[in-house]
């Protein structure tokens, strides 16, 4: 993928070179079908099935929801409570930095939350959205690299973990729905290998590359409380510093509170290979 491609993430593709489209699956093909040369075998008992098919929203399943764990690492019913219509949380709201708990209740409430997130994503011209971006601090993301309702494949990933990333880094101009109007280059690995669960709780193990890998990494950062400007070099950050400060000022004016963070205290780029807080 060329550096000139623009990606509006949480996310949205603002300008996509026509010559790059063959790199990614067409709407009629599952994004992570076995035919994808970079895909790993999916690890699941029973007949083989593409990730996109198993992870798309609305898929019915007889998988029993696990009982809530007596463990602070897992979300409670209160943690998963939400009120539609969902609204996108804007920087510097502390919700974006809060710890996001793991999910172990794969029930109707989780499916409804995923559906609501997709609806917000499409209404805001997104390609992906994480739960903390709509005020729910749990490890859940939804995305569709096609960015258009009715096209591509709708993917739901729960409790994702990155266990390997490519050494080759690619720059893209990213944006984020939590940072309206701000776009800047971010370097990320061109591919990642992940483990996760789908909306039914079934385990998934797969390699993502190209646009799906970029979308996933942006949303995965949100689940770690990492924001896209944390990945920018100081030179790139300087180009959007005033816009970030304007968002901090708007937060203070809207809430009457002091901004919980400021770009003026930024300490430097977070290692692009680091997938921890």
From TrEMBL:
Keywords: Chloroplast, Hydrolase, Iron, Metal-binding, Plastid, Protein biosynthesis, Transit peptide. The keyword Protein biosynthesis applies. Its main location: plastid. It is found in: Plastid, Chloroplast. It comes from the Eukaryota. One of its GO terms (molecular function) is peptide deformylase activity. This is Peptide deformylase. It comes from Urochloa decumbens.
């Amino acid at each position: 993928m060329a550096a000139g491609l623009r990606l509006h993430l949480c996310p949205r593709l603002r300008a996509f070179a026509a010559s790059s489209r063959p790199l990614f699956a067409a709407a009629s093909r599952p994004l992570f079908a076995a035919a994808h040369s970079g895909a790993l075998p999916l690890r699941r008992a029973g007949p083989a099935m593409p990730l996109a098919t198993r992870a798309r929203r609305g898929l019915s399943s007889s998988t029993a929801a696990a009982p809530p764990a007596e463990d602070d690492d897992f979300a409670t019913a209160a943690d998963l409570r939400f009120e539609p219509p969902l609204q996108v949380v804007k920087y510097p709201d502390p919700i974006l930095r809060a710890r996001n708990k793991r999910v172990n209740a794969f029930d109707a409430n989780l499916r409804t939350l995923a559906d609501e997130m997709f609806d917000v994503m499409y209404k805001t011209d997104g390609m992906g959205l994480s739960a903390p971006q709509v005020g729910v601090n749990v490890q859940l993301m939804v995305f569709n690299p096609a960015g258009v309702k009715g096209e591509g494949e709708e993917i739901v990933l729960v409790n994702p973990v990155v266990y390997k990333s490519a050494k080759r880094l690619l720059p893209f101009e990213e944006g984020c729905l939590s940072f309206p109007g701000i776009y800047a280059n971010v370097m990320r690995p061109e591919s990642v290998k992940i483990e996760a669960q789908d909306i039914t709780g079934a385990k998934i193990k797969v390699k993502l590359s190209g646009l799906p890998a970029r979308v996933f990494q942006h949303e995965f950062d949100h689940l770690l409380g990492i924001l896209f400007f944390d990945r920018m070099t100081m030179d790139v950050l300087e180009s959007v510093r005033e816009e970030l400060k304007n968002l901090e000022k708007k937060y203070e004016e809207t809430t009457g509170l002091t901004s919980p963070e400021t770009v003026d205290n930024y300490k430097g780029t977070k290692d692009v290979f680091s997938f921890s807080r």
